[in-house]
Amino acid sequence: MTIFCGIDWAESHHDVALVDATGHLVAKRRISDDPAGFAELLNMLAAAGDTPQQPIPVAIETPRGLLVAALRATRRPIYAINPMAAARYRGRHSVSGKKSDHADAVMLANILRTDAHLHRQLPDDSDLAGAITVLARAQQDATWRRSKASNELRSLLREYFPTFLAAFADRPATIASPEARAVLAIAPTPEAAARLTRPRIAAALRRAGRVRGIDAAAETIKRALRQPQLRQRPLVEQAMGTHALALLAVLDTACTSVDQLAQAVTEAFQQHPDHAIITSFPGLGDLSGARVLAELGDDRTRFADARAVKAYAGSAPITRSSGRSLSVTHRRIKNDRLAAAGWIWAFSASNSCPPAREHYLRRREHGDGHPAALRNLFNRLIGCLHHCLTTRQTYDQNRAFPAFTPS
Q1: Which of these three, 68, 86, 118, is where a domain ends?
Q2: Crossing angle of helices 286-296/370-391, nearest 10°?
Q3: What is the count of structural domains for the chain?
Q4: Which of 199, 207, 382, 383 has the most CB atoms around its CB within 10 Å?
Q5: Structural domain includes residue 405
Q6: Which residue intervals define the domain Transposase IS110-like N-terminal in the entry (predicted)?
């Protein structure tokens, strides 16, 4: 008898339901989120006919967590059902809007019973790929937090200390650069900046890691910080300086996290067998390549073809047709992390790779805007990457862009 399992996940407990091929409820139970609860789940599955040769598939609304990790260790099929899709299925069984944890567990089991072929199993990625996913996502989150902290600090400085922003406007990372953070730490207000001497600024630059042109840079910063500007009232200015130091501490922590995680993810990615293939593509380095691998994984059976990868990445357009209405737009439901990495990848490739640049310009001449042209380039590149990863070959410019004509 074919059995399907649905688990409604919660923080402290989980509701489990087993249904047979006809939709009849075979068993139900609430288990705790601990080893005893997991053992209870395994006993429940075994009593329903679960065997290593024919494991009972499981549907759950999350792809992560200790319960999912323990279930994956049993080598059984696990389907992570998107909560939005699950909400649509809920309406098939009740139009009143009622909801319960047990009913959701039954609904998830019935999703497998009727539509398992329309949902994708959790990929069977290697442990190394799983570790890269954790580190790459953490580094990406840290980068976003750094940008947020930097923008908050910049907004505050704009209100009372614009000359500081002007003094470091030519730095690659502006106020997030080590030099700008070191100087702001000793001069958080215009009054403090006016008392700075060149030796103190030079010492701050050395602490930030600068080794060349320190005296000249210190003199330039000193003059820039003493430029005339509008001022807040003294007590208000002092309070804003205290606020700036608090935001600076957050920014320092974010910058440190970005650097530490970048080193960790780079070391892990360089050990992966797909490293040489991914980094052979223009625009993909260790960090951006690790982000792409983190979202695609290394289970080559995960995607049926390149079209599935492109849809998952959000680079392929989506068509909406109803009656006489027809529209082709970009996808909004996608893997946002992969789409963000793809944007950086396409932008970098369009500036460093002549064939990619020609492809981008051709799309612009065709009428695409900048985002649409980059998305089209990303669509082409990720299709080529899928082919290279499947066939175990590195990037070949002549095959990726056969129409390219060198100038």
Answers
A1: 118
A2: 70
A3: 3
A4: 382
A5: no
A6: 5-162
Q: What are phi and psi of 327, to 5 degrees?
A: -140, 140
Stretch 252-260: mean pLDDT, rounded?
96
Tell me the DSSP string of 320-368: EEETTEEEEE--SSS-HHHHHHHHHHHHHHHHH-HHHHHHHHHHHHHT-
Query: Where are the alpha helices (H) located in 171-305, listed in sequence order?
Result: 178-186, 190-194, 198-207, 214-225, 234-270, 275-279, 286-296
Q: Which residue has the tokens 């059995």?
A: 3
CB atoms within 10 A of CB 54: 11
Q: Which amino acid is at 220?
A: T
Residues 380 and 344 in one domain: yes
The residue assigned the tokens 């996608």 is 334
Question: Is the distance from CB of 294 to CB of 269 less than 8 angstroms?
Answer: no
User: pLDDT band for position 226 (50/70/90)?
Assistant: very high
| Domain boundaries, position 16 | 3-118
Cα→Cα distances 132→274, 279, 285, 363, 384, Å: 12, 15, 14, 34, 22
The residue written with tokens 């009727």 in the block is 114
